[in-house]
Amino acid sequence: MTVHQRRGRYLEELHPGDVFEHRPGRTITEADNLLLSVLSMNTQSLHLDAEFAAHQEFGQRLVNSMFTLATVVGLSVADLTDGTTVGNLGFEKVTFPAPVFIGDTVYASTEVVSVRPSRSRPGQGIVMFEHSGRNQRGVLVCAARRAALVLRAPAETGVDQSEQ
């Protein structure tokens, strides 16, 4: 019997140009939006006040963009970094080209932009990911570039370490 366990990928398993489609998606609820907004002290009326938002440009509450970003990156964890990441190094070029509304479903994909061994941390490397989030209609709602510090594969994993 072979036991398979879903986990993130080691540095040697990530290659520039690889694209991962993360499933399932995540349907955003009113509770999600409310909880993140109040936990982060973001009392923006566009997120919390349905009556106010009804009279603004989009005619309804907008999902907190920080929740959108966290969801898009979070959807990638099981496929890419669960158990193999050391930590995030930073985000750059984060955009929200279209709003997310309560009831929308967000789907994420990630492209590996670059991969290199760390110069100062043996056994680790730096990966640049380009995350994209789309709603159920295929509209881009979030894009973000993220640098992550990722573990190199231990010898006992059998992953080819000569690739990097």
TrEMBL record:
This is MaoC-like dehydratase. Belongs to the enoyl-CoA hydratase/isomerase family. It comes from Streptomyces fuscichromogenes. Residues 16-119 form the MaoC-like domain. Pfam families: MaoC_dehydratas. Signal peptide: none annotated. It comes from the Bacteria.
